[in-house]
Amino acid sequence: MSETTEIEKHSLEAHVELCAERYKMLEHKLEVVELSVNEVKENLDGIGVKIDSISNKRNDQIIGWGMAIIGALAATVAWLLQQYVLK
């Protein structure tokens, strides 16, 4: 923080003016921090949406592979039944 100056110690008006300037600077710094935090939040929200999208695509891919494997196994079982049991 800013140190109290000699003139502030002797003049209330000077103290009030310097405090007003200090508060303006603090408010400005808080606004900058708030903007930065909001920007980070927006970026994190965007990353979350992308992660969800990638996860959903991956789940669809795994389900597709599973269906293909099950289909291939069912076709193999049907072929084996037809070749060895129904003859």
Ordered list of secondary-structure elements with their pairings:
Layout: H1 6-10, H2 12-85
What would you say this structure looks like, in words?
By secondary structure, the chain is an all-alpha fold. The chain has one domain (6-85). Helices cover 91% and strands 0% of the residues. The radius of gyration is 35 Å and the shape is rod-shaped. The model has no long low-confidence stretch (mean pLDDT 93).
Task: Briefly say what this structure is.
The protein has 87 residues and is mostly helical.
Attribute tags:
87 residues; 2 helices; rod-shaped; single chain; mainly alpha
State the order of secondary-structure elements, H for helix, E for strand. Answer: HH
Q: What is the radius of gyration computed over CA atoms, rounded to a whole number of angstroms? A: 35 Å
Mean pLDDT: 93
What's the number of helices?
A: 2
| Percentage of β-strand residues | under 5%
